[in-house]
Amino acid sequence: MNDPPAASASSSPPPSGRDLVACPGCDTLYARRSVRRGESAWCPTCGERLYGRPALTPEHLMGLVIAALITFLIASAWPIVEIRLQGIRNATTLSGAALALWQEGRRIVAALVFLTTQVIPLCDLLLVLAALVGARQGRGQGAAPAWAAVALRLLLHLRPWGMIEVFTLGIAVGLVKLSTMAHIVPGVALWAFGALTVLLAAILSFDLRSLWDAPLPAGTDAVPPPPSAPP
Amino acid sequence: MRSQPAPDPAPPAAAPPLRACEAGLIACSICGTVSRAEPEGMPPGAEARCPTCATPLEARRPDSLARTWALLLAAAILYIPATTLPIMVRSSLWGNGQETIMGGVVYFWTSGSQGLAILIFSVSILIPLLKMASLAVLAASVSLGRPGTRWRMGLYRLIEFIGRWSMLDVFVVALMVALVRFRTVAEIEAGPAAAAFGAVVVLTMLATHAFDPRLMWDKPGSSSR
């Protein structure tokens, strides 16, 4: 095996993996420093955010996630809007919109709408909850359980595909378009979508990687030093 | 090559900052822990895993450039039917009609909602186009061996952030189709462009995620590229 150049560090004790940070944008190495709540470190080379301590505590985040789950249920189950035309009424829920497309034969579009506005946002919220519960357990035992990392891994892949806030803007545009041809009565879910957009913005701003920071002071047993460390 | 694995946060101006790949280190994409790319005692061919959270470690996203180009090409081809075919088909007592994305922009512009016309035009026509062009420029800069700049990095972050908003028109169509179902009076159906347009958004997002920005900062000809 090739001897990595870093292994030639013999004078100083080798650092633990949590003392270093490699920029996710350009791979430059930095020594990790402790930051205050709400502070972040940014890469001077490429400008990417390196790490930080969220302004919210994990407990705050858990509260927000539960609030978002309730709002999500209201937004999904109640009609978004009702339109009246020539004495006929018609209302739709979010899944009703996906179903209408499906029945019309536009199955790809229907699946896309259903996944990005229902399945993925729900999975996102549940996975955040799982990661938080895992990190909480980990604080007692010294290390977060492996499934918390699996939840987070899944979450990072899913997250870009949740599009509640885009859908909320889509409702606004659609209503303007329909307002010229029919009478519009906003439904409960319309307000729920507005509230959900705000809640999700707060939830998404929480850097979940920091869950591995707080319960692990540098150099604990939970972070094994690099294998080539001298005994 | 410096021998210290822990660089000073403010390295002296003479020495370029040490990069993880040059030090034989990999950062975990999930928890950020930095560990050795090839830990001692690891059997050959075994998969390196993060010591903190056991996530499989990858120095760079796999086949980054090839995947980016393939997805970009597919998106560029689908962009043509997405913008030329009708996205909505209307039938009502007042007449039937088809509407392309551009038709929707013109409708808003002429009916007095210039702000919405500009929003739809940017989100549906301009952003997908600029996104594909920008990603092509970034991928080409890697292939040509140009050094990374903060400007290009900023461009990548911008297209990563803005890409999902192009889905707006698909959602507008979904809502209209579900609401305007008045049998003989008025009916709106989704047109063939809706699926094509959704596919363009999905493919450009996949292309953006396949592209690894760290490649822009790798030295030309290095093994990680």
TrEMBL record, chain A:
The chain crosses the membrane at residues 61-81, 108-134, 154-176, 188-206. Keywords: Membrane, Transmembrane, Transmembrane helix. InterPro entries: PqiA-like (IPR007498). Pfam families: PqiA. This is Paraquat-inducible protein. It comes from Pararhodospirillum oryzae. The lineage of its organism: Bacteria, Pseudomonadati, Pseudomonadota, Alphaproteobacteria, Rhodospirillales.
